[in-house]
Every structure is written in structure tokens, then in C-alpha cells.
Amino acid sequence: MFDNIRSTLKNKEMMRNILRLAWPTMLEEALQVIVIYADTAQVGVMGANASAAIGLTTTVTWMTFYPLYAAGMSVMSCISIALGAKDHDRAKRAASQAVLLAVILGVFIMTVTLAVSPFLPRWLGGAEEIRHDASVYFAVICTPMLFRAANIILGSALRATGNTKTPMLISTLMNGVNIFLNFLFISPTRRVTFLGSSFTVWGAGWGVAGAAIASAISLALGGVLMTAAAWRSPVLGLTLKGIRLDRDVMAQCVRVGLPIAGERVLFSFGQVIFTAITARLGTVAMAAHSIALNAEQAFYIPGYGMQTAAATLAGYSAGEKSEKRLMQYCSTIMFLATVLMTALSAALFLFAEPIMSIFTPDGAVVALGGLALRIVAVSEPFFAVLVILEGIFSGLGDTKAPFFFSLFSMWGVRVTSTWLCVTVLHLGLGAVWACMAIDNMTRFALMMTRFLRGKWKTRLGLTASS
Q1: DSSP string, 261-303
Q2: Is 221 helix (H, G, I), strand (E, B) or coil?
Q3: Would the pLDDT of 324 be above 50?
């Protein structure tokens, strides 16, 4: 592995390929984190109840997005492998299936989420005082799910062609609109001082609902723009006449995407149970938990930013039947992500409380959230490798084993140990986050062991000499 890293770092062409794909996606991740930070900080000034209301349904919201991400990864795998094999016709057929997947999943998930939104906060065990806001927030951000689906799935199709800049630019515009609308919708009309001048700024004063409306509008905008960008791509070759079911390609997408979707949904359902157990610790603990989850997102930027590069380049290499290039790309991207996330985890550990104080003035929430961030910082370097490995196996279309690993780790490690810590041992939020860190390291160990054994190469028809 170290020989692969050294040789790739010296290879200008391969490094250009990695950076060309990685830097726009890393910037896109950074911009999304800025929006999360803005949402969290602007809502946090309204108190712990507002933060807890949003945090209560956050894991369920993630669960609704995961089938879309799974579909996106399956499309990315199909297109990148086809392009690596110089099969441009199959790549275009896969792009048409991406459109169908976006429409079907977007409409279905929107219908289900709107139906359960009135009851969800009570099912999750949320306190009475936060249930209404939590229900409204969840319903509003899930309404534009069709646009969200187009943004995610068609964005993945564009990235598979090597075009990561367009999704980044669209994300930049979306996030700018979201932050601006947050400023207008969350707080009431107030006096603002800027560069020594004081003036009145209109505000709707909608609070939690205002944050949701701002997010919904930006998601709708992003879906429209991403669809337009995908339609203009000559590599994808989308036309209205070409949008029809292709059983062969759709079967490949389903074969790759179904385990990812199953893994993500079951994993996120475990997170829902994990959150419901955490909610038993009270509103302050729930607010600290919610804010800390959002705060740590910034420290995932290198991993998730490079995950797209790992998936795309792994797919290209598999299509070319080049085992050597595959291992060079995979090893080097893991190395780069680990170095960057290790540095960030050190910052997270050292400045946990100042980071928390960005989002809330509540001293109890800051102290409790700071403890949680220090605990999870220890597992960040392992998480970096895990994220890249997930991208590699998704790009290769090898998704069954990661599904079982995630299922075991989430339910056998995180949920079970958290339940024991909270309900049996009566421990606090620190123990809950320790369980989460152990879960991350368990999945890392399982995935890394499988990668190093290399038996998965046989299915792809790769040999050491290829």
C-alpha cells in the first residue's frame, strides 16, 4: 500500500485526476457545512427548545435522503464503469435511468414523509414543548423532495463524467440563497449594526419554520438548476424521447444501489432509535447532541469531499480492468483524507467549547456539547478511511458486504451499547457519544480488513498484472 501511495504522489497525471475531482466536491461540502452552521447558529439564539426541535427529526431527515444518495451512487458507479470501458452508449442509458429514479423516489419519499410528519415528534419521544415546531420543520423541508432527488441523483451523474465543478457552483448558489433567506425568515424585524452604521432589517420572525422554508426554497432552486445542467451534458446525452425504462441498466443500478439504500436506511433508522434514546436525557442534552452533530460536519469535509473522487476513479479503473491504477488511486486518496481529517480532529479536540459557543449562548449546552465533540474527535482519522472505503466499494458496485458490516455495527454496537448506557447504567451524553465513536471504529476495522484481503478483486476480473 505504501509503495502505491509513493508512486501516485509522484505521478502528476494521477494527482491531477484526484485533485480535479476532489477539490470542487470538498468546496461543495464546505459550503453545505456553512449553511448547516448558519441554520444552527441562527436558530440557536432562540434557545434550547428551538435547537432541540430541529435536532429531534434530523436523523429521520437523513434517513429520507439516504435512498437518494444510494441511487446517486449506483448511477455514478454505472456511468463511471461504462466510461472507463469506453461504452458511451451504456453511460447515456444509465443517465436516462437516473431521471426515472429521481422522479420515482422523489414523489414516493415526499408522500410518505408528509403523511408521518404530524406524528413523528411524539413517536421519537420529544418533549411536548418542541413537538409542534419539530413537526412543522420536518414537513416543510420534505415537501420539495422531488427537487432534492433531482439535485442528488443527477448531480451524481454529472460527477461520474468528471464534471464536479457544475454541481459545486449550483450548491454555492443554493447555499447563498439559503443563508440569505434564513436571515430574513428566522428572526423578526430588528436593528442591525454593520461597519458602525445602524439600520432596520425586515424579518418574518418565523423561527424554526422560517429555517425550514429557507431550506425548501433553496432545495427547489438546486433541483431545477441541476436538471438543466444534466440535460446540457453531451456525455449524458439526455433527451425526452430517451427517458424510458432500460431493464438491463436499471437492474445494474438496483443491484448496486439497493444494498447501499438498505444499509443507509437501516443505519439511519438505528440513528433514529439512537436519537430517541438520547432524548430521554432531557432537552439540554438533546440540544447539545443536536448542535454537536451539526458542528462536527465541518470536520468531515475532506473525507466526504474525496469520497466522490474515490468512487469515480475506482469505477474508471474497474472499467479499464486496471488493478494497479485502482490500488494506486484508492491508497492515495485514503492517505490524503486521513492526513487532513487527523489535523482537523486535533482542532476539534482542542477547541470543542469555542466551536459549540458559535451556535448557542447556553453555557450548559456548550459544556455538554464540548465533551461530546472531544470524544468523537478521537475516532475521526478512522472515520476518514471508512468514508473513502465506502466510496471505493460503491464506485466498484460491490455493496453487499458494506451493508452487512454497517447493519452489525449500528445495531450490534451503537444502539445496543447506547441503550445499556442510558437505560441501565444511567450514564450521560458523554457515554452516548463514546458508543458512537466505537461504532465508527468498528466499521472501519471491518471495511479495512476486507479491502486488504482483496478477494473482491476476483469478481471484477482484476489481477495483479492488470
Answers
A1: HHHHHHHHHHHHHHHHHHHTT-HHHHHHHHHHHHHGGGGGHHH
A2: helix
A3: yes
User: Which letter does DSSP use for residue 187 in this model?
Assistant: S
Q: Which three-class secondary structure state does DSSP give residue 36? A: helix
CB 147 within 8 A of CB 195: no
Torsion over CA: 301, 307, 312, 314 (sign): positive
| Cα separations in angstroms, 350 against 292, 345, 346, 367, 373 | 15, 9, 6, 13, 10
Q: Rounded CA gap, 314 and 331, in Å?
A: 11
Instruction: List the grid coordinates of 399.
Output: 455493496
First to last CA, the chain: 17
Cell of 213: 422554508
- What is the residue-wise DSSP string for 395-415? HTT--HHHHHHHHIIIIIIII
CB of 75 closer than 8 Å to CB of 152: no
Q: Which of 245, 247, 341 is nearest to 298 (CA)?
A: 341
Count of CB atoms situated within 10 Å of the CB of 47: 15
437 is written with which cell numbers? 465513536
For the residues 68-94, what does the mean pLDDT come to? 91
Q: Measuring CA to CA, which residue among 10, 7, 20 is closest to residue 316?
A: 20
Cα separation, 413 vs 447, in Å, equals: 15
Read off the pLDDT of residues 199-231 as tens digits, 9 standing for 90 and up.
Answer: 888 888 888 888 889 999 999 999 999 999 999
Distance CA 421, CA 431 (A): 7
Task: Tell the residue number behind the cell numbers 474508471, with chain if given.
Answer: 316
Q: What is the pLDDT of residues 21-80, one digit of tens each?
A: 888 888 887 877 777 667 666 666 666 677 777 777 777 887 788 889 889 989 999 999
The contacts of residue 418 (CB under 8 Å, 6+ apart) are 274, 277, 278, 431, 432, 435, 436
Tell me which amino acid residue 400 is: K
Cell numbers at 308, concatenated: 466522490
Which amino acid, 34?
A: I
Q: Which helix (H) or strand (E) holds 241?
A: none
Would you say how long the chain is, in residues?
466
